[in-house]
Design brief:
alpha+beta, six-stranded antiparallel β-sheet, four-stranded parallel β-sheet, 12 helices, globular
């Protein structure tokens, strides 16, 4: 034998581990096509790539920078949890305004309200009190767990009594029992002003799912993908209590009675959206929607917003050669064709 040749051959076989189901078949088929070999032992640390649903399945202590790839940045929660992102964005936008006002920036920076709807972090007592002071009769707000996806745990708040029962009373009880000196709640939620005038496609609510790939953190290399349109299968009425009318996530739509027959209608391409706008909608000034509006206006605005989100955390993320992350960003259009961000996962 040639032991050296055998070991070189083994070294050339690139191995990967997949933990969890989220998109795993797509990853597996792409890697298998390229000659990679899957390993199934979660404790085997000899992988070249580890693709997991959650970062708890990655041992960062054992990670070898420059030799391995893992699909989660350790503190990506700064960008992916709703409470983490709103904190980062507030700081970032304040910093940009200070730079603009001191003459260090020529162009007026993007405003916080253009990146995220009016938002309060329910976990914090001061922000709960701010929300109570802000709420007016007739308002609709949407309450979301800070770190869940697929529409889990989301509910609408139409009455202040609902908010008081859900958050203010438990917080007061915890404080009176000495369980929380800071007034923090254990369950992290954010509450956001609900967008009352969404653009509807033939009476159906929709959103736009786009993607950001942080392909490298040393140096930073970030890509954008324009994604697709996600449509509800239920006619939209603002006072409708069906989650399926308000949330377009596939995980939510699957629960509708006619999902199997109509699931092809839940996804449109951006070209289909452009064609619908040209045929059925007008710009705020009454002009027809230009044939390149999606390409020239919509995608440009979406990338501006996504870039602001990334820039708000880029100096805080833990960076190593081999860390990467694929993120989903969700947007609504309102009836004036304003791009309204509604979620990041």
């Amino acid at each position: 034998g040639h032991p050296r040749r055998r070991s070189e051959g083994a070294a050339r076989t690139l191995t990967y581990y997949i933990g969890g189901r989220n998109g795993s078949s797509l990853v597996e088929s792409a890697l298998t096509e390229r000659g990679w070999m899957r390993i199934t032992d979660p404790l085997n640390l000899s992988f070249r790539l580890r693709w997991t649903e959650i970062k708890a399945q990655i041992s960062y202590r054992d990670f070898k920078p420059g030799e391995q790839l893992v699909n989660h940045i350790p503190n990506i929660g700064l960008l992916t949890t709703k409470s983490g992102l709103i904190t980062s964005l507030r700081e970032h936008c304040r910093s940009l305004i200070r730079r603009y006002e001191s003459g260090l920036m020529k162009h007026k920076p993007i405003q916080l309200e253009d990146i995220v709807p009016e938002t309060f972090n329910v976990e914090l007592r001061a922000e709960r009190e701010q929300f109570v002071a802000t709420f007016k009769d007739g308002d609709i707000w949407i309450c979301k767990p800070a770190s869940c996806n697929q529409g889990k745990g989301i509910f609408l708040v139409r009455e202040m009594a609902e908010f008081v029962d859900r958050f203010m009373k438990p917080a007061a009880a915890a404080a009176s029992e000495g369980l929380s000196q800071s007034g923090r709640l254990k369950n992290a939620y954010v509450i956001q002003r609900y967008i009352r005038n969404p653009l509807l496609l033939d009476g159906i609510k929709f959103d736009i799912r786009c993607y950001m790939l942080i392909a490298s953190t040393v140096p930073y290399m970030v890509f954008y993908h324009h994604g697709y349109v996600r449509r509800s299968l239920v006619q939209y009425e603002e006072d409708c209590t069906d989650r399926e009318a308000h949330l377009t996530n596939q995980a939510v739509q699957k629960k509708t009675a006619n999902y199997e027959e109509q699931k092809e209608d839940t996804v449109w391409t951006m070209d289909q959206l452009q064609a619908w706008l040209c045929e059925h909608w007008k710009l705020p000034n009454g002009d027809p929607v230009p044939g390149d509006w999606v390409e020239a206006t919509l995608k440009k605005r979406i990338t501006q917003i996504m870039l602001a989100c990334f820039n708000s955390v880029k100096n805080k993320l833990h960076c190593q050669v081999g860390y990467f992350e694929l993120l989903g960003f969700d947007f609504l259009l309102d009836q004036s064709l304003k791009v309204r961000p509604i979620g990041y996962v």
